[in-house]
Each structure stands twice: as C-alpha cells, then as structure tokens.
Amino acid sequence: MKHLFEPEGRAALAALMRERPLLAFDFDGTLAPIVARPAAARIPAAVAQRLRRLAERLPVAVVSGRAVADLRQRLGFEPRFVVGSHGAEDGFDPAASRARMRRLDPLRERLKQHGAAIAAAGVSVEDKGQSLALHYRLAPDRARARALIAELLAGAGPDLEVFGGKMVENAVAAGSPDKAQAVRQLVARLGTGHAFFAGDDVNDEPVFAAAPAHWLTVRIGRGDQASKARYFLDSPAEMAVALQVMLDALGARNAHDG
What we know:
Layout: E1 2-3, H1 7-17, E2 22-25, H2 45-55, E3 60-63, H3 68-72, E4 81-83, H4 94-102, H5 105-113, H6 115-120, E5 124-127, E6 131-135, H7 142-154, E7 160-165, E8 168-173, H8 179-190, E9 195-199, H9 205-210, E10 216-220, E11 231-233, H10 239-257
Parallel strand pairs: 1-11, 2-3, 2-9, 3-4, 9-10, 10-11
Antiparallel strand pairs: 5-6, 6-8, 7-8
Helix pairs in contact: 1-10, 2-10
C-alpha cells in the first residue's frame, strides 16, 4: 500500500472523481476516531462539513457495523445511503431483514441467561437488530472477557456467522450481506460503475479484496501489510484532508469543463 497523499494516490483520486463515483465510508475508525465508549463517537466538524459538500455533488454512503438509527444521529450530515450491521441492514428488503433479525433470537436469549457473567467480565452487549456485538474494550481482564465471549458464541450453530473487530466480536445471521455486497449493490443501483471506499477494520477487507481495479480503496492505518486496500491513511485525522482533495478535484473538473 502507498499513502493516498503521495503523487500517485492524489492522481488516482483526481481521476476517479472525474467518473462521478459512489463515495462510501466506514464510520468508527474511519470518519470518527475510535473511542472507549461507542456511544461517545462523533464525526469531527471539519469532516462532516466536507462530507456535506460532497453529498451535494455525488452519492455518498456510510457503510458501518452500527445500526442505521444509531448512525444517523452521529453523522452531522445527510448521506444518500446509510447501511448498517456490516451490510445486513440496507433498507432494500425489509422482509429479509426481519427474518435475519429473528434468527438472532436464540443468541439473544443465551446472552440474557448469562447476563451476570457478562457484566462481571466487563463485556457490553450491543443489539443492533441485524447483528449483535460483544464489546470488551473496557474489560479489566481482556483475556478473560475474550474467553467468555468465545464460550458464549461457540454454540451459535450454522444459523449464525461470527467475526471479530477492534475489541469486539460480532454475530449476524448466516448468509447476511457483508460490506462488499452492500457496496456492490449501491454501485449497481446508481449505475456509476466506480467507487471509493475507506475503512479500517477486518470487516472492511472484503470490500478491499473484491474491489475492481478501477475502484479506489483506502485503509485507515498502515499496520496491516496484508490488507488488500490500494492506499492508506495514517489515521482518521487525515480524513478531512482527503475529503478536501476530493472537493478540489471536483472544482478543477468543473473549471475545466466550463
């Protein structure tokens, strides 16, 4: 991976913007810094302001592990698309969404039955409807918390898929759309053929891996050398600059076209 702000990355981003792409972003760790308590996460004002300007010109999507209702109150702007629960909550097929939600009920009951042990281990359970998240960032003994989570999820059975993240384990109904499927569906609905996607976690890697060569993908953080993203940014703190580069490219294109 190369840094997005190197000449090659800037040129690739400018070329992509000429194609009127879908601009899609993860939320936590990408648009908003990672915080100890998920309820405190917010998009910085400079990022929200530039996203708002971009959303006036191009289709913008936020594709996150959070629930859609939770996301909307944290954005500070109105994107065209908001997709939650790692791609499972897309709003396009309500009946399928309800069915996926019901398939999580046995796990919900299991977690309820072990509520005292979960609380004692410092694990918090977040029910997003289409997915369940077990957070252990604040656990006093993370090894103990991870062991408990593994035990609770071990009997999830074939109806569920379990995958990790940053200090969290997630469960969704088996066969649920992932972020890669969600972004491809948005691109197809728009008929654009081109997309930008930025994310920071293991559940963003399917997008990076599946992206056609003419898409532009960015991983936030340079630590994972195995990432399939084409470019990287060092941290969410660089996102405001990246968005300004996009806006500048649109301005240059319009000036040239005029």
